[in-house]
Amino acid sequence: MAAVHPLDPLTPQEISLVAHIVRNSFPSNNLIFRAITLWEPPKKELIPYLEAERLKERLPTPPPRIAQVLFYVDKAAQYRRGRVDLGQKKVTDIKNLDGHHAYVDAGEMKKCEKACLDDSRVQAAIKALQLPEAAVVVCEPWTYSPDGMNDMTRRCVICFFYMKLSPHGDANHYAFPLEFIAELSDEMKVMQVLKVPSGVNDKMVTADASTLRPFDRTKIHTTSEYHPDLATERRTTVKPLTVSQPLGPSFQTSGNLINWEKWRFRVGFNYREGLIIHDVTYDNRRVFHRLSSSEMFVPYGDPRAPYPRKAAFDFGNDGAGVNANNLGLGCDCLGHIKYFHFWHHTNDGVPTKMSNVVCCHEIDDGILWKHTNYRTDNAVVTRSRVLVLQTVITVSNYEYIFAFQFNQAAEISYEVRATGILSTASIDRGDSVPFGTIVAPGVMAPYHQHLFSLRIDPAIDGYENSIMVEESHPMPVEDPKSMTNVGYITQNEFVENETPLDTDNRVGRVFKIVNEKIKNPVTGGPVGYKLVPHYSQMLLAHPSSYHSIRSEFGDYPIWVTRHHDDELFAAGEHTLQSTTGSGVATWIKSRKDNPESVRNQDLVLWHTFGTTHNPRVEDWPVMPVEKMTVGLKPVNFFTRNPALDVPISKQADNKSVLVEDDAGKGCCGTTARL
Known about the structure:
Blueprint (H helix, E strand, L loop, with lengths): L11 H14 L5 E9 L3 H12 L11 E8 L5 E7 L4 E7 L9 H12 L2 H9 L7 E8 L12 E9 L12 E9 L4 E6 L9 E2 L45 E3 L2 E4 L2 E8 L3 E9 L2 E15 L11 E3 H5 L19 E8 L5 E23 L4 E18 L2 E10 L4 E9 L4 E2 L9 E5 L2 E4 L1 E11 L7 E9 L13 E7 L4 E3 L8 E10 L6 E7 L13 H6 L6 E5 L21 H7 L12 E11 L9 E13 L15 H4 L20
Antiparallel strand pairs: 1-2, 2-3, 3-4, 5-6, 6-7, 7-8, 8-9, 10-11, 11-12, 12-13, 13-14, 14-15, 14-24, 16-17, 17-18, 18-19, 19-20, 20-32, 21-23, 22-23, 24-31, 25-26, 25-28, 27-30, 28-29, 29-32, 30-31
Subunit structure: Homodimer.
Family: Belongs to the copper/topaquinone oxidase family.
GO biological process, one term: amine metabolic process
């Protein structure tokens, strides 16, 4: 087997080997493989290897290469987690996970759809609705969120039903939500069919001929299509805009290693987190050990049963990696594109290639810095080039675009864009509800939240860092130095132990990750990076609710913990149908009797952010992107502007073209001369 880097995702050969080794440990059983993925080396074992790489020294023996395997034995109730040493070619650990559930994949969803549509009670419910002759019924399975009504020890799925009035495969079925659901067991059997509320005071009841009404045909409309085959009106005013890089891209890649404009880092990928950024250095100085999306929680705010069951952990329940799109050249990413491909597998453990799931490209981001000396009238301007690492996932109705962006001023941005189609529910014509927006006749889009957790594992000039909380306060009126009452100062306080923290715009609260042992020669203070948070409303569900108990990280925008190798997921390792907390708040609480210091320690900073999405009609039938951005900016890490050496912007390189107005004049009122 060819040598691989300790942080490289598993190769197809390794996936096949792991499946073979695990099968041999269960020779008389039928195994269903749900995840075969790299178990990253313990940080303490990995650091010497990464340091030797950074310093270009002789590499030590790499840490053992371990794969983690999630699988079912014979039947769905027997859920197991295994670890396989690829060097020794043996299973080193097996853990019983009964009571927990593996994530749901597309293959399982398709089986759920078929099982529902083939069920006689579902067919009877469809018949009772007396749908139009052209109607095509669509079943959409959702992972089940506990609401206290059902036993969660057995895996179950909730299936919503919609209708489309066109045979076209991309007709928008969310435009016609139907008034019943089905609950499906882990044996792919329909347990019950229920009529869902369509009025603000309605209750969920058993669906049958006595409770289901014929479909209200006044809800039929033709304005909810988005696909170009069905919504044919398109603007003709947009002319092509091309990205030209005549000398090629400025980045270099070697396997999963990227070098660009003093940045150096590795691209990682797994079935759950999707895109991961490893071992980030700038000008050969350590900055971050690992950056990743830890979790995403989407709770819906419709309090009527069954809608509290719509509360999706899109990473833990579905997997960002396995739902990643194949990114189209010239569509999802523009310019000179480097694609990264990774590998997953079938339920039988056969490797499957995931092509083009991460794209790497450069973009122009406007002016980076500029100054005009009014005395000489000389202007100096540089343009900002940004390197983008992007992945896009589709989870049922929604798309999410995740992008790590690196700029020439040594700053990192993490951008999330939400788009796709609103999840909808039926509503009676003329009715309204206080927890949703009517977006089309008989179509209600419920209020909901999107909460993300960004996991930041820092290495600011080393692996022993501290969190400094800085606030800006006006100087006291009685201070003799503030005679004009306009002065203000900063107050700094170190975080000593693991804790959640709040943002506070009133005092300009800033969270700095600093290395107290390394002093900036100019300021005399510690070097660091600061978090520029995306200010968001936290979880709205009451603390007693399952939404709050299960998500945990949604209570606060900032969490600080000591690093532990197995603490990667802010809502815990097992989120599907979880009924208790097992994430970041639980970890801190479990150590409260012996609090772990995070000052001058190997720490992790977690940032919760997102959007409270109260839909607009303008979000229908497909939603313009909702953009959220988190920043990581150097703060006294350098001795001057690190982008001072970026080349000056020149027309000879940019080749901009002057646009004349109708009178033949240039844009500034002078005659155009090209």
